[in-house]
UniProtKB/TrEMBL annotation:
SUPFAM superfamilies per record: Carbohydrate phosphatase (SSF56655)
Lineage summary: Bacteria, Bacillati, Actinomycetota, Actinomycetes, Mycobacteriales
InterPro entries hit by this protein: Inositol_monophosphatase-like
Name of the protein in question: Uncharacterized protein
């Protein structure tokens, strides 16, 4: 649940995902080059690892966001707001 946006994400194995009760789907036309990728990091991952990941993503023509919540970033992938999410150690 995202209180500031009043968004309730839910999912169950084999049942898909919903946002405020409405089924979610992804946009297959989105790619690393035309959408945003979420990136996560924490104290288990060195800054060099994260920097390398960001560098490779930018070199591939991508862009990224980090909001500090891996769970929310994964919900954003399900909602089609992000093309993907990567966190080296979650």
């Amino acid at each position: 649940y995202v209180p500031c946006n009043e968004e309730l994400y839910a999912s169950a194995l084999g049942m898909g995902a919903t946002l405020n009760g409405k089924a979610l789907s992804i946009d297959p036309s989105k790619t690393i080059r035309n959408a945003v990728t979420g990136i996560g990091a924490n104290h288990h991952v060195t800054p060099a690892v994260v920097a390398s990941l960001v560098e490779k993503l930018l070199e591939a023509g991508g862009n990224f966001i980090r909001n500090g919540s891996g769970a929310l970033m994964l919900a954003y992938v399900a909602a089609g707001r992000l093309v993907g999410y990567y966190e080296p150690y979650m």
